[in-house]
Amino acid sequence: MAENFQAPRGFHDIIGGELRKFRRVTSTVRELLRKYNYEEIITPVVEYAKVFERSIGEATDIVQKEMFVFSDRKGRRLALRPEGTAGVVRAYIQNKLYALRPYHKLFYEGPMFRYERPQAGRYRQFHQIGVEVFGVAEPHADAELLKLADEILKALNVQATMEINSLGCRVCRPAYREALVEYLHGVAGHLCDVCVDRKDRNPLRVLDCKVETCQEAVKEAPKMVDYLCDECREHYTKLKDYLKELGVNFRENHNLVRGLDYYTRTVFEAVSDELGVAVIAGGRYDYLVEEFGGPPTPALGFALGVERLMLLVEEPQRNYDLYFVIPFGEVHAYALKVADILRSKGKVVELSYRKGGLKKQLELANKLSADYAVIIGEDELKEGVVSLKDMRTGEQRKVKVEEI
Predict the structure, then answer these.
(1) Which CATH architecture describes the domain 322-403?
(2) Tens digit of pLDDT for each residue in 211-227?
């Protein structure tokens, strides 16, 4: 009995209509990134595990439970990338991009890997497009980034709510963390087991827990915005003013923290009204380059989930005519030449490889949703023409190839 080969759980093929939706998302985003003058960067899907442990945070769920980690033949710990920012930061430093010009605007596209329960729009291999801006501390950069995210949603006709928050900085966050830990100890009896473990190691993540009892327990928790230093408060205020000026609708969510440790100041999520989950998310990470051994460099960015957006977009309709060339008899050289001429004129052409009568050939043309059948037999070869059949109207006539 033949072995039944299947893709591993959480890994999937993207074909047919799903692929067309995939390309609609990626091409739409790429066109907007071109308008914003972002430069593409391609980083490896494999990095040393410490790249992610250092950046994402060893107390995060991603590092503790979800990374695909393995050792090479020399015992070095490697990981499939669970997110894109850490690898781009590593590349930014390794290639000394900071020495080339004052700031960089980069984007990446590709697969990410997390060992988590597969669900709608999230697989163990999933795809992201992300943008990263290095070297800019001013809040108008944050505003432009959120405007870009907003434009992506509008271009894809996706309804989502933009939520924003500020997580402060090294100056103001310690006092807030202390106040939050004290509060969480007081409500520990209402927290889930995961959050009981988090409350001392990674207390901000408790605010983001989706368990109902935890959400209820943190309703009265201290808010970071009440602890912001003067610089962070001014940054956050200007961001909101700029967003209003740009016409970007948003709401403040003071429990929004994101799942990665490297964020500072601005964080945001675009939450799908239909799915109830974030489809675009990001924020500022002003210390990460420095923590990786690079020069102090303010930075910010976001990533979008391609598969999640695919759930929300319609499959694009074909916007070109398909010509199906059908040869009968010893006319294949002429059929090849006809197909070549049509393609040189910008037409999309399928040359039939199937043998059979006209009826079967036209059935195949219909299965391919061809707009025109280009029928070539011995008579057409002698006359130097083709029989062009309009598959939508049934009209058929002989024409010279150059006249199509």
Answers:
(1) 3-Layer(aba) Sandwich (3.40)
(2) 888 888 888 889 999 99
